[in-house]
């Protein structure tokens, strides 16, 4: 069906003489096909004769409703083969036949229920579809399968329903009717089969074949205004009141018998131009001819005014032939889609033409363009045929567009209020109208480019499916129309581009390849043009598009149907287009690579192509794993794990090649693809785990780690500093904005979006263009390909804002296929925004105003907001507690840019009199005593058996002396027998830059502490927490003899904390004490941060929504940097008065080490962590912290105006106390 419709589309492009160059090879639908189903069986030999006795189900009749002659061969009362004679040709290709109707008659022989029906149809030219009327024997719920040849595998196919006339009427009114898997509206078991041969025509007229249903509705749209013109080359308005042209400014003065008028439809249109002139001398019936010859009428159309004024045939981009008819008064617009009047463009302008005047009730000369055209402006030129006749007045001419609009409803919505950066309020109303208008124009662009159930690149050029346009428009479709069918049809025809040229290789690969990918036989090189659209990168985008389609629509049946095509192309790329050693994609000089309009030679496109190749491999792995799971669930024998292992191996080789490169140089397109594809993140993951490059040299590994982790900063600088050439296509501009979003710079992404797409609106765009530079003016926008009107001004790949606005402003994007799990992350600078997104589970509705965020979560889905999962239902959140990932990105900036202290400030084995056996130090905490200028640091010393807390002092925070015991272990049998870890002190002030002075209550200082009841190992489970006190702040003891918090209570202990309780952190706020503690869950060993509260420091109550900071296991590269997927531990919480929020420093474990992370809250209860560390393990070039950097203590040095951050540094020098310093507060 898809190939047939695509053949019709290609023929229409050819007939319309569109200026198209296509480098690839399209696939034609087959002339021989096999169909079968699971109700009965028949086997047909090559000449169409059956020979298998009682198990044969005979085809009772084969009916070919067509105008051309046909011959039907019958054998034994059953039609076996159909051959169509007198086939006309077009452009050297055979004509397309119409549907074939097969009626399966089981009355002749017994039918067994456990065998199959097989239909073998051979026709040339091939039919678009086989129609099998449903009966009690052949129900509509049957699952049919198809194969192209006797040796091919059976493939599940889509079954369509034929539509009744009422359904067809509904479809033309804009109501899309789903033909897939629905009951036929006229059940054929109610009809006498014997009467069907006697009433063929009547039968055909009662229902409509699926391939005959026009996926468009035709609406009559009138122009919004007429443009006054003084001539073909002079389009200025007439200003002189004495000029006789004021009476009719649309008549040319120097051509007395010619009328020229230019009409502006106000927006881009796709349809046929209809022009009519009153024929008052004509008879009332259109079956009679007029007494006089009709005037001569010609049209010119253009996407710009200048194009409509062009008469040079060398610069015509479309065929402007017209057909003439004489229309009777009672016909009017009835036959031309008058039902579409609701689509007329109305205006208060005096020149608007939007009403049918009385002249429409007279006979009219009517001209209609022979082909569907893309235009905004129409010029009509009328010459009188009779020498004595004056040309008609402009008021006599009626012009309209018979618009061919796809049967799409805008299911998604988007409206926006102020979305500034929080500082500029002067352009609030302008921004509001701009954002909403950009989204609406983008959705209209995509709507026009969804033509004949295909996503085409442009409506003027080329009006054909291209993989690049599809790849960038799938997300836009998901956020606006949620139209799966057009994406399915486009993927189907694209997947078969050039497929015949590689089929022999694929057949050998699929059947004979071993696990290493080696062939049993050596095959010759493939035929030309094996790639999608004839370009290597578009073959890669085809794989990515399948992955993207599953991400947004979760259409597993379609994936199973198309998997053979996807796998064949992947195997071809693996075998013939890639280097098995390095993983690089092999590019030959004659290979076509597009990437973007960035260079003429393939060398400059090599780096982005290799990144795209990695992305396609990653998507292919994901698709293959999905198919493997589906096959296993269905109990099918076929195993896809072989292709999975081949793809993983090739991707791994490619990653190793990247990591071995000493100097990775990227241009703008490579930076964009590296971020969006996830390659940079994967390289970081890969470099962070194991000494892959040289097992004997850890230094080499960390050199690579540091270099790879700089890629994100390099990408951010490259995209923002303006030194690299700008991207000039919406195709890659969309991907660039996604990259900025992924880099955590959503304000910049929004700024680029407004500037680029808003720039097109500034030059009077009604749809978005194929290419655009912000320096271009309205005079320049049409010129392209060295042609004055070669640019497409309505292009599918420019529809990106439909997806970008909801994703940037509200952070809405799927985390699991089909929105089963999705993210909501609204920007704080947004004042008001509303959006709706249609999913397979129902609508997602999201409304953000000044006070609340209101979200409707469809049943069967879950929303992730600030790291917390919310299931189906309506939810309301106060904006005062909301923090976005963009907020964390901005707020975290002040805690970056650290300078390393070269050595441990307290070594792993410090010399402490009486405690010489210490082998590790850990958990530094800085404090001061009232009235004392000294700085004190408590830290833990571990001697291989037990923990004890020690104290050191300093006057400059660099040199630490006078180390002694602060608090020792408890007695055997107590909860702190194995060790005590001081550090959760009660401070006078928790402002982040204040002095860390201890607070005294009732003559004592207080601290919570962690403890262990067992000895002999490091952090032996289970842990406990206790309360300590001190009268001098130097020597501490237990204040309470029992633990205050443990895995045994108080309160309900949940699974996340069932195995161990670790280090606390104490905060006093508004008369309430907060205890932030981390706990462990086994066997997966995940640590997360919880909260308990108290009024007296002695009795604690666990927070009901614990943990308040959960490990980041969300599968999203923006919210999950991978640095805290296992641990979020050891919280240190302070108040930032400047920005008005709480700051939590903690350490995360992921990517092979522990890293210093940061999270933020407005109420101490709801926390949002930043996805990337403020300091990563291995950042110190000396190797001091190459394994872990964690457990911090932060203090602002008022004398030097610097931040001092002490932390536990684990690396070449063992486990000791390290230091990093930030030079300035800013």
UniProtKB/TrEMBL annotation:
Signal peptide: none annotated. InterPro entries: 6-hairpin_glycosidase_sf, 6hp_glycosidase-like_sf, Glyco_hydro_beta-prop_sf. SUPFAM superfamilies: Arabinanase/levansucrase/invertase, Six-hairpin glycosidases. This is Alpha-L-rhamnosidase.
